[in-house]
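User: Just a sanity check before I run the rest of the batch. Below are the structure tokens for the first item. I only need the designed sequence back.
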């Protein structure tokens, strides 16, 4: 039975209270999208992780639904509470509510479908993740909502054909699948490090930079990295209605997942039709700036929501390939 788990990450600080736009959210220029009227309204992101603290003041209004695939709480499918903190942190980066306290997420009006595929200790069976991906693909919300992005800050060393197939099925339904690259990096350009599902060519594989836009030493490098986002000293929501500063490619991934729904929201308004997964990917990559690193480190560059535009380019009307 193959296992998957949290990509190792660092807890740097836990805070009882704060009132700030997190530096990572600022670094990708999410406020520029908000000023244009795009905050993720009507968008749903499936977060496959350790669950979510459903009572957190920043998140309790942001959860549209959830399901527990793990053995926590005797396998009660309706109890997707987070006993680890990782999933709550990821959800906060995605859509912490805009209010007069705490933090704000990249897409503060989006909703999360919380799919608990890792137990409290941070590990799970690959089949739980596979089931979670399939659940997200088929899920329909109370008002007919569908998942637009699947976000996975998890990984393992084993390639699973069933998980790979489930991801391909999600992509066939025009869902963008965003995954952490992994934290086994050695800082060297010539060596490859792979974690699955991030290493599958169909997914958007996210590496990490620090708040000075330097590649994180721990960030995996390989030929299929798509882009990088802030993954060091990331402030977000945490257990017990608190906040924490964490580091890892796990923290970079939700910045991209949430940015993707802002891009979908804007592009579909402008084009007046739904976008395919390939078109969503192309629009996301337009919102990157190249850094002074090899593509094995940075892929197409750092996510920047103020960069580029959602208008079609002459040669490639909307699409590009991963």
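Assistant: Here's the designed sequence for the first item:
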């Amino acid at each position: 039975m193959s296992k998957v788990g949290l990509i190792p990450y660092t807890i740097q600080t836990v805070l009882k209270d704060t009132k700030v736009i997190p530096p990572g959210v600022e670094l990708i220029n999410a406020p520029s999208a908000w000023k244009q009227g795009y905050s993720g309204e009507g968008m749903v992101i499936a977060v496959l992780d350790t669950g979510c603290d459903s009572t957190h003041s920043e998140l309790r209004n942001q959860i549209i639904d959830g399901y527990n695939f793990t053995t926590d709480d005797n396998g009660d499918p309706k109890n997707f509470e987070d006993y680890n903190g990782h999933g709550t942190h990821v959800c906060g980066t995605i859509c912490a509510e805009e209010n007069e306290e705490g933090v704000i997420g990249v897409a503060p009006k989006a909703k999360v479908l919380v799919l608990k595929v890792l137990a409290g200790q941070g590990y799970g069976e690959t089949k739980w993740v596979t089931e979670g991906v399939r659940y997200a693909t088929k899920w329909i919300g109370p008002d007919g909502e569908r998942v637009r992005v699947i976000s996975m800050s998890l990984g393992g060393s084993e390639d699973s054909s069933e998980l790979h197939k489930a991801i391909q099925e999600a992509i066939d339904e025009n869902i963008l699948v965003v995954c952490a690259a992994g934290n086994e990096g050695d800082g060297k350009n010539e060596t490859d490090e792979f974690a699955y599902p991030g290493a599958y060519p169909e997914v958007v594989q996210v590496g990490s930079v620090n708040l000075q836009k330097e590649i994180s030493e721990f960030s995996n490098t390989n030929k299929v990295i798509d882009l990088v986002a802030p993954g060091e000293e990331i402030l977000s929501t945490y257990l017990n209605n608190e906040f924490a500063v964490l580091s890892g490619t796990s923290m970079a991934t939700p910045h991209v997942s949430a940015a993707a729904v802002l891009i979908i929201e804007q592009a579909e308004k402008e084009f007046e039709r739904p976008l395919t997964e390939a078109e969503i990917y192309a629009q996301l990559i337009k919102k990157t700036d190249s850094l002074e690193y090899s593509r094995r480190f940075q892929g197409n560059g750092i996510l920047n929501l103020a960069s580029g535009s959602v208008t079609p380019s002459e040669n490639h009307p909307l699409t590009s390939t991963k």
